[in-house]
Amino acid sequence: MDVRSLAASALAQNKKAIVLLGAAGAALLGFGLGYKYMRKPEKALRVGVVSQLLIHPLKSGRAVSVTKAECQKLGLKSGELEDRHWLLVNDEGNMVTARQEPRLVLVSLTFVGGQACLNGPDMEELRFSIKQPNNPIFNCRVFGADIQGRDCGDQVSDWFTRYFGAEKALRLVHFEPQMKTRRSAEMDLLFPKDQEVAYPDAAPVMLLSEASVKDLSSRLEQDVTVERFRPSIVISDCEAYDEDSWAEIQIGSVRLQRVMSCGRCVLTTVDPETGVMSRKEPLETLKNYRMCEPSEKHIYKTSPLFGQLHSVKRTGDLQDADCTTGTGLQMYTSLWLTLACFSVTDVNMHCPDY
């Protein structure tokens, strides 16, 4: 074959390669453009407004209602108020909650000028320094999981021991930023592996609607309030149990992802106004209509479900409906759009318009 023939053959092969490459590129471009234009316009889907933000600084203690809060990976924070960052323990380091000491729900822990303020019925107010770096760090256990806490001192210990009339000393510990957190997945595998908490049971945020509480009250002889169920975020302007279906929600710049329902225990039978545990209602009524599906019994066992546990996908600031605008912050669900082998979820306060 002469040089001219060789050149012609090479050119023909190159043209073939160019055509094939061009066709593949066109196909990818076409798929990309098709994907772009097959996606329908997105729009916001309003599902409710934030009516209350509640921070429980002391685990099982009284809630503090705030109008603004930071939603951090470990939960809500407003100034020195940090959700479930203080814990009562016995002399063996095991947590003490209102399950063992119902009157703990009447104890308030607030903060003024760098000091913590303890208050309880028939007790004098006790103020002590938030930061006590010379106090020992204790190894504690929350539901069997190890975690640390800075001891708050003998004066605080004596206050709690006298309040409960305890035979053995009780001590208050404080979770500090440098301490190792607990991983939520160690309590329940449904949680993301990177989700961490301090002293909450498992989730940094628990969300509940006013309508769900109202519906439960309609089934009881005596009304109950949201405080009995110890949520972080309370939602209004929605239907009862709507929160069960919100896979992801956006509140302002904060993004929350539902992990699981909140299985309820005997703590719900403690009256937040009296500190008396009935061991019956509203738990028995919830068991009549709020049990899980049979396929989920390995998760929730015999616990009725009320409220939703969320992990924090994106941190930010929260406000309740009493903010300066007077209209509250809208909350949005995240719906899923499936195209071929792709799943797309919006992360900008919008959901696909079907």
Q: Total helix count?
A: 5
Outline, from the CA principal axes?
Answer: globular
How do the strands line up in the largest sheet? Answer: 2-18-17-21-20-19-23
pLDDT < 50 runs, ≥5 residues: 14-28, 321-329, 334-354
Q: Which class do the helix and strand fractions yield?
A: alpha+beta
Radius of gyration: 27 Å
State the share of residues found in helices, binned by percent: 10-25%
Query: What distance separates the N and C termini?
Result: 63 Å
Mean pLDDT: 84
Q: Tell me about the biggest sheet?
A: 7 strands, mixed, barrel
Strand content: 25-35%
Number of strands: 26
Strand-helix topology:
Layout: H1 3-38, E1 42-43, E2 46-55, E3 64-66, E4 68-72, E5 75-78, E6 81-82, E7 86-89, E8 95-96, E9 108-112, E10 115-119, E11 126-129, E12 137-142, E13 145-151, H2 154-164, E14 171-174, E15 182-183, E16 196-197, E17 205-209, H3 210-217, E18 233-236, E19 248-251, E20 254-263, H4 283-289, H5 297-300, E21 305-314, E22 316-319, E23 330-333, E24 336-339, E25 342-345, E26 351-352
Parallel strand pairs: 17-18
Antiparallel strand pairs: 1-26, 2-3, 2-18, 2-23, 4-5, 4-22, 5-6, 7-8, 7-14, 9-10, 10-11, 12-13, 13-14, 15-16, 17-21, 19-20, 19-23, 20-21, 24-25
